[in-house]
Amino acid sequence: MDALCGSGELGSKFWDSNLSVYTDNPDLTPCFQNSLLAWIPCIYLWAALPCYLLYLRRQHRGYIVLTRLSRLKTVLGVLLWCVSWADLFYSFHGLTQDQAPAPIFFITPLVMGITMVLATLLIQYERLRGVQSSGVLIVFWFLCVICAIIPFRSKILSAMAQGQVSDPFRFTTFYIYFALVLLALILSCFREKPPLFSPANADPNPCPEAGAGFLSRLSFWWFTEMAILGYRRPLKEEDLWTLNEEDRSQQVIQRLLEAWRKQQRNKAAAAFEKKDSSEGEVLLGGRSRPKEPSFLWALSVTFGPSILISACYKLIQDLLAFVNPQLLSILIRFISTPEAPSWWGFLVAALMFTCSVIQTLALHQHFQCIFVTALQLRTGIIGVIYRKALVITNSVKQESTVGEIVNLMAVDAQRFMDLAPFLNLVWSAPLQIILAIYFLWQNLGPSILAGVALMVLLIPLNGAVAMKMRAFQVEQMKLKDSRIKLMSEILGGIKVLKLYAWEPSFLKQVEGIRQSELRLLCKSACLHAIITFTWTCTPFLVTLVTLGVYVSVDERNVLDAEKAFVSLSLFNILKMPLTMLSQLISGLVQTSVSLKRIQHFLSQEELDPQCVERKAISPGYAITIHSGTFTWAQDLPPTLHSLDIQVPKGALVAVVGPVGCGKSSLISALLGDMEKLEGKVHVKGSVAYVPQQAWIQNATLQENVLFGQALDPKLYQKTLEACALLADLEVLPGGDQTEIGEKGINLSGGQRQRISLARAVYSGADIFFLDDPLSAVDSHVAKHIFDHVIGPEGVLAGKTRVLVTHGISFLPQTDLVIVMADGQVAEAGPYEALLQRNSTFAEFLHNYVPDEDDGLPKEDSKTVLDDVEDEEVLLIEDTLSDHTDLTDYEPVSYEVQKQLMRQLSTMSSDGEGHGRPMSRRRLGPAEKAARATEAKKSGVLVQEEKAETGNVKLSVFWDYAKAVGLWTVLAVCLLFGAQSAAAIGANVWLSAWTNEPVVDGRQNNTSLRLGVYAALGMLQGVLVMLSALTLAVGSVQAGRLLHHALLHNKMRSPQSFFDTTPSGRILNRFSKDIYVIDEILAPAILTLLNTFFNSASILVVIMTSTPLFIVVVVPLAAIYVLVQRYYVATSRQLKRLESVSRSPIYSHFSETVTGASVIRAYGRGQDFEAITDVRVDSNQQSCYAYIVSNRWLGIRVEFIGSCVVFFAALFAVTGRSSLNPGLVGLSVSYALQLTMALNWMVRMMSDLESNIVAVERVKEYTKTETEAPWVIEGSCPPEGWPQHGEVEFRNYSVRYRPGLELVLKDLSLRVHGGEKVGIVGRTGAGKSSMTLCLFRILEAAEGEIYIDGLNVAQIGLHDLRSRLTIIPQDPILFSGTLRMNLDPFSNYSEEDMWQALELSNLRTFVSSQPAGLDFQCSEGGENLSVGQRQLVCLARALLRKSRILILDEATAAIDLETDDLIQATIRTQFETCTVLTIAHRLNTIMDYTRLFLPRMFYEYMEEDFHPYDKACMKAQMPKLFCLSLVLRKGLCYAL
Q1: What gap in Å lies between CA 82 and CA 1216, rounded to an integer?
Q2: How far apart (Å, rounded) are the C-alpha atoms in residues 674 and 574?
């Protein structure tokens, strides 16, 4: 380098220490300035060029037009090139003048000129690629300015010293160059306009990050706008920015799915190769285990590149972390050397500050990158799990229930997100440990080996604890799954639990699981306390052992300030990787459990899409099955076998047979929901499916019918009319815009089924699979639906229809009847052909179908109907269909019809006199428009979950403190205070030790110094462990109390709460929020207390060492408080928004899994995936903003920390005359720790506020309104009550919820003990409401109900409900044994149970099961048919056998024979009981004492019939029909 500078004016020396270091006025040699210093920016730009060009080629956002800013930048670049080349030509000119300039004058201008050309070209290339702000060029111009500052000063000093300018031309060009690069730097800080044709332009609220400048991105200044907004007012969902394109679900999930499917394909290929080579392997003596597809590898392929980029930032930060201890070493030496130049100290202080700032910037770029990757991880995992849940087989569904799958999404996916920030520690921690040990070796020599040995010995301890924690984690996750699964079932069947008064049994089950969970949490907490003790003590013990060995091995080893505090700084750096390594191990342990669970779920069997062939089929047919054998699970016997079915195109096919014969299974097989063992299935055309139990979404009625299709008003109106929904729209508060609750909770069973049918009709499919849709509706509605929808004259005429039904009255109008028996087709053929056969089914038909002579001749019927106007025909048909099932068994004669016609005409003429028109009033266009605008407001059932706003109330913290225990909280605070005092004492003692005078080359009292230091350190460790243990015990106690309060409140909440609150929202409290209370809050509090006391200790030490620091503390503290206030207000609300937006994901997911078969049938899987993606993205928007808020905070708070380091060093330099090296070392080494402590303190404060929201949400649900007490002491009914079963309603009125209209008004009726009473009425008339009132599910608005003379409102709910028996409309079973489903309290003997099963026609089925009464029912009883589930409900009633029995359309889903058996059972077993039956089929109430009918005419209030007197029934038929018409037209206000 000396040779390049030559021997001319620059001199021959490249470096001169006397000029640059050992002087009070330092400078660099002209040679150094013109060579290396000038080349630094050029070297940087050329080194960065290849990577930057590669980046620019991949980033194309459209080009930016040539703006004034761009022109200015280009002009500056050209001018700089001209200046450089002017210098070069000036040097050549010198050659012509025989001046022989040094070679450096040719090389440097040439290099600079080419580099400036490159910079100018980059400016234009960036513009063409749409780059608004160039980080590479900003750094380049910044380096140019920094490297030009030293020559700037030198040239002025030189000119002043010489009195003239030695080289005017180069002097002038340099200052022009300096002005130009300074201007270029300033201009590069401004960003260009957005590029043209940018996709971001269409975004309503784009994330400003994409358009932010380099410096804004570096400092996260672009987030400031949201921070200010969040401080001024609570943030709302619409304030959140949309996600960047690369972070959205659609892209992330697609990438992960491709990687996972590649893994699955590789496995399939390996399995195929293995099959080919299996023979050879057998010969060789065995087979290797088949390789499972690795979900971890799929994650690595998808997210690995992002993690690598973050690793680069982390590497920079890690290397810079070791610079400050070396600078501290120089600073202590400077303080120890009075003759050293002062600028040394100032330079060291400045370098410490610069190093800290760069370290902060690198660290937060690393965090931003890794946290965004963590978000993507969660998005991808949730998306993959959701897509898998749509296609899992039935056997997998039984194994992985909805609650368990929700846990995979809620907890396991979150664990991956929590682990991601620690991933780089896998290599970073060992690197930091190695570097720390290296520098410690330089400082203390071989003594460090003692500390290393101790660290190695502690690894097995950490390993053992981690293994134990893993075991606990696995058990805990299983228990959590069980608890969430049980809670999911409880919420799904809460109505049944209330009707049966079974809450205590299920409460006990949940609390039993919770107790086991808490025991494991206690054990985990103890292990966590041990790990905390290890984390705290390990760095100290390593320091103690190392220093102890150092001073012990040689008496002449003196512990001075430099050795002690540089070592202490290095040990503090070492503390972080050692601490984090333990957390990493813990996180890896927990995540490995989650990984296995997710991988196990994703590897489960899927439904075979090729199971049903949808393209080729025999001509003329729509559905064919050839030798089909199907099962619900591979390990179960076939449910359907040897099926051969051919359905002609456009045919109406009825599938009939007894309960459990496989009717619904046949539909499932045709849909591809069963596993095909053999045979072929062909289904040609699009499919619509109406399941036996209607699946309704939590959306408006219109959205349920449209099901994602565009609205066609004519088709929509026609569909509603055909499905008999128009009358319901008038009743519903918002018409078709009424929001339907979760699982259709605010609709009757018939309404749900008709909406499900309307969905199918509107779809316009080719093939319709109708699984007994008529069983859930009233008989007149059933006939209407058959006539107008399903039958030969219905809207589906000409379509292929497969109808499962129990209503044999419809069979004559079908084209084909398939009779199922024991999973096989017993018979098949046209209805007439089956009648002529001498088979079991023909015999059954002859018993139930009326004789032809008794029937109404079709011609006569038609003649009569033709004589009436169209509107009257509709009324007559609907009226006749009010009790269609009369015609099923006792045909209406022609004379009866004529008599009915006369009565109808009389009523029509007289109807106006009563002020009520007979026909339904039709709305005009204006009324319809007005209704539509109001519909949304009035029709909302489920209110959106509201996020709390503003500061978390102190009452929430107080609630949690009380739950933990006030004495526990006080003890923890005192223990932390004592621990901080011990830590300060230990370091002050160390400072005094280093200042001890050296006598004869050694220090006295070394043993005493070491002993006291050790005692203080160990005391600190013990206090930390005690505080961790105390807090852990308190947090488990808080978890127990809060969960207990939540559970007990929810079990006592009224039914109306569950009707208006999605189960996902409630489950979220029991899963995520309880998880936060159990496992997140305590560590957050622990860290907050730790950082708070640590920060306080640091400030105390610095202010004690350098009192002048107090002057700086005030402004820095003001800035800190300001930043903290902006941050906490914003981040807290972002966390709340995240919590609120999380619930809809799980609610939608639960809803989807329940209706997966419907979604698949309609081919709507992709649409539902898109809906989930939108909901996940909505949730991730608040997560993303929250992550950026942490980065925004970190940059600012750590800058304050860097200022503290700078001022601590600066004041140490200025006051070095009065300070000793030990005190300076103590002060600055403490200051170096403050940066991280301040950051973590604010973060933990915010995290605590954000997580304490879980307590707020749980407490909110522990304070909701509860129903009446279960048992009222001193007001219990007498033993054996009710003895007679007399029921009386006195002026009874009721409404579903406050603010709604009355559903029953002034109802007065009396049922005598032992009477059999039928309750009839159209859908929505209030039949089921009466039963709900009896059980006090609905509480009276006015009036009373008396049972045996006792007012039911005066006794406890369980005293009432346990003395009544109901067979509900929806048969709900819970997962568990059949024994538990029959008798959860174990009140009855096994003989009683078998007797009940015998009477309910279930004994044969249960006996055939290997487990008998211990037969395991799946979630919701899905491994039993609906009919079998209804029979189980009958068995429950037979076991309880109280004096009052209520049947709520209990036989709707049961075939006729079974229905007769049940009725016979009820007649014999409940002969002396009062029976209230909501009639579905009239044969059910034929032999009843009385019927309850409308109260339009008081004399029709009750009709007395004699049991089995069919003649009487016939005689009164016309009156019944008239009353039915009144009822249907809504002319009554009570039953």
Answers
A1: 50
A2: 59
Residue 1160 to residues 221, 227, 568, 570, 1153, Cα–Cα distance (Å): 47, 45, 64, 61, 11
Query: Strand, coil or helix: what is 973?
Result: helix
Phi and psi at 646, nearest 5°, equal: -135, 120
Q: What single letter denotes the amino acid at residue 590?
A: Q
CB 1244 within 8 A of CB 1030: no
Sign of the four-CA dihedral 139, 141, 145, 148:
positive
Q: Strand 767-771 to strand 1376-1377: parallel, antiparallel, or no bridges (unpaired)? A: unpaired
pLDDT range class, residue 1073, cuts 50, 70, 90? confident
Sorted by sequence, the CB contacts under 8 Å of residue 378 that are 6+ apart come out as 413, 414, 416, 417, 1180, 1183
pLDDT cut 70: percent of the chain above it: 85
The CA angle 193-199-203, to the nearest 5 degrees, is: 90
Estimate the crossing angle of helix 323-336 against helix 1221-1262, to 10 degrees: 140
Counting every residue written for the chain, the total comes to 1535
What is the pLDDT, as a whole number, of residue 1009? 80
Res 1191 pLDDT > 50: yes
What's the confidence (pLDDT) of residue 921?
36
DSSP tag of 789 = I
Question: Which H or E run contains 115?
Answer: helix 104-128
> Which residue, among 1367, 1355, 1321, 1342, has the nearest Cα to 1529 in the 3D structure?
1321
**Partner residues linked to 1378 by β-bridges:** none
In our burial notation (b when 16+ CB lie closer than 10 A, e otherwise), range 922-956 reads eeeeeeeeebeeebeeebbbbeebebbeeebeeeb
**CA torsion through residues 1110, 1115, 1121, 1124, sign:** negative
| For residue 477, pLDDT beyond 90 | no
644 backbone dihedrals φ, ψ, rounded to 5°: -130, 105
Please report, for residues 134, 914, 941, 1061, 1140, the alpha-carbon distance to residue 944 in angstroms, rounded to integers and kept in the order given. Answer: 44, 43, 9, 9, 9
Radius of gyration of the chain (CA): 41
CA nearest to 1227, candidates 1112, 1088, 1087, 1092: 1112
| pLDDT value at 423 more than 60 | yes
182-220 as b/e, with b when 16 or more CB fall inside 10 Å?
ebbbeebeebbebbeebebeeeeebbebbbbbbebbbbb
Tell me the residue ranges of DSSP E strands in 1359-1423: 1364-1367, 1376-1377, 1416-1417
The pTM of this model reads 0.72
Name the residue with tokens 């813990």. Answer: 586
pLDDT at 236 over 70: yes
Cα–Cα distance measured from residue 916 to residue 1496, given in angstroms and rounded to the nearest whole number: 11
The one-letter amino acid at 572: N
Sequence letter at residue 1468 = T
* The pair of three-digit structure tokens given for residue 1124, joined into one six-digit string: 């903290």
Per-residue HEC secondary structure of 587-654 comes to HHHHHHHHHHHHHHHHCCCECCCCCCECCCCCCCEEEEEEEEEEECCCCCCCCEEEEEEEEECCCEEE
pLDDT at 1346 over 50: yes
Distance from the first to the final alpha carbon of the chain: 108
Q: Coil, strand, or helix at residue 1501?
A: coil
Distance separating alpha carbons of residues 325 and 331, to the nearest angstrom: 10
- Average pLDDT on 339-349 reads 86
The amino acid at residue 225 is E
DSSP at 282: H
- 128 has pLDDT over 60: yes
DSSP code for 688: E
947 — pLDDT class (breaks 50, 70, 90): low
pLDDT for res 342: 84
User: At 829, is the secondary structure helix, strand, or coil?
Assistant: strand
Cβ neighbours of residue 833 closer than 8 Å, sequence gap 6 or more = none
CB 138 within 8 A of CB 215: yes
